[in-house]
Design a protein that fits this description.
Blueprint (H helix, E strand, L loop, with lengths): L19 E3 L8 H8 L6 E8 H6 L2 H5 L8 E6 L3 H14 L3 E6 L4 H5 L10 H12 L6 E6 L8 H13 L4 E5 L10 H4 L7 H10 L4 E5 L5 H8 L4 E4 L1 H5 L7 H6 L8 H17 L4 H5 L12 H11 L8 H10 L1
Parallel strand pairs: 1-2, 1-8, 2-3, 3-4, 4-5, 5-6, 6-7, 7-8
Helix pairs in contact: 4-6, 6-7, 15-16
């Protein structure tokens, strides 16, 4: 199997649909995981983990930016607050073949706050607008913003509306809105995904007030039926943890949300496709457990699913292991 990796090639303005997106998730949505997801859905937009401007400008660029052509449509999420650095990274990402640049204005972690980016940027909409314009001026692909509905005590609809209006005035058209506020003090990133209550109505109101903007809802979505409900009022939905822990939900995305007529893939056919990918990666030195950890939920809720997960978890870390452990895991289910 040949895996084609994007590297400095010219691309035309992409045409893709944000109707269903898979969220950027630190430590989870790496290139191996995204390839696995792509075996389940052709149309969902996948997002990278957040990558800081410093990592791109001063780190191992190949490790951070490499991805396979099979992952399109793919967006890169950047973390930063310096307009010049963000512009340079946006141009680099476009040259690598990414379809979209997304700026993180929603992460609440202490590390992100100390770098003056993430959710704390919602306090400075004018700076975010400057960052957006700097990136938008140097690329020919969409630049989008992912943010919260509020932050700390700045938690009224008027605050959210001011943030979006400021960005819209700078010609930003696409907003991915996590429908929870962020508490920057006192709550961990995990708690910030669960403790602040969801407020979908606030996101709906944003769409009613700005019908020409593309508004995508993130937060608390666990089923495609919920997605269909939200899509009656909004332009798109973004699913995170549920797609990771129960990935086979993605097998119905193309048919239910994109009117795709192709048959749903089976769990076993998806696994065999990933085995081919693993064979190629192993030949290039990737450890099996770096690959296998992303597929543990493939048989979630199925008879034998726990045996499948246990067998892979107990054997994938061994230096002698290869993709054949997946065959053994399937045999346990049968």
């Amino acid at each position: 199997m040949r895996i084609d990796y994007s590297l400095h090639h010219d691309r035309l303005m992409p045409a893709f649909d944000h109707r269903f997106c898979i969220a950027p998730m630190i430590d989870w949505s790496d290139r191996h995981c995204r390839y696995f997801w792509r075996l389940l859905t052709k149309h969902a937009v996948v997002y990278t983990e957040m990558i800081t401007t410093g990592a791109i400008l001063h780190g191992d660029r190949d490790r951070h930016l490499r991805f396979s052509h099979q992952e399109h449509p793919i967006a890169i999420q950047l973390g930063g607050s310096d307009p010049a650095q963000l512009a340079e990274c946006a141009k680099i990402a476009e040259d690598w073949g990414y379809d979209e640049i997304n700026l993180n204005c929603g992460c609440p972690s202490d590390r992100v706050q100390s770098g003056k980016f993430g959710a704390c940027l919602m306090f400075e909409p004018e700076l975010v607008a400057e960052c957006f314009q700097a990136m938008n001026n140097v690329v020919n692909i969409p630049v989008t913003i992912k943010h919260r509905i509020g932050v700390d005590e700045q938690d009224e609809y008027e605050d959210l509306e001011h943030f979006v209006r400021t960005l819209a005035s700078a010609e930003c058209n696409t907003f991915i809105v996590h429908a929870r506020k962020a508490w920057l003090q006192g709550l961990s990133p995990k708690q910030n995904r669960e403790v602040p209550p969801l407020n979908y109505e606030r996101v709906y109101q944003l769409k009613r007030d700005y019908p020409s903007l593309e508004i995508i809802l993130n937060g608390g979505i666990t089923t495609l039926e919920q997605s269909q409900t939200h899509l009656r009022a909004l332009d798109g939905v973004m699913v995170g943890r549920e797609a990771y822990h129960n990935p086979f939900m993605l097998a119905d995305v193309d048919a239910l949300l994109f009117d795709e007529n192709s048959p749903q893939p089976s769990r076993e056919s998806v696994l065999r496709g990933f085995m081919e990918y693993c064979r190629d990666e192993l030949a290039h030195g990737t450890r099996l457990n770096h690959l296998s950890r992303h597929i543990l939920g493939l048989f979630h809720g199925q008879p034998g699913g726990k045996k499948f997960r246990r067998h892979i978890s107990e054997h994938a870390h061994l230096a002698t292991s290869d993709e054949k452990i997946f065959e053994e895991a399937i045999a346990l289910i049968r």
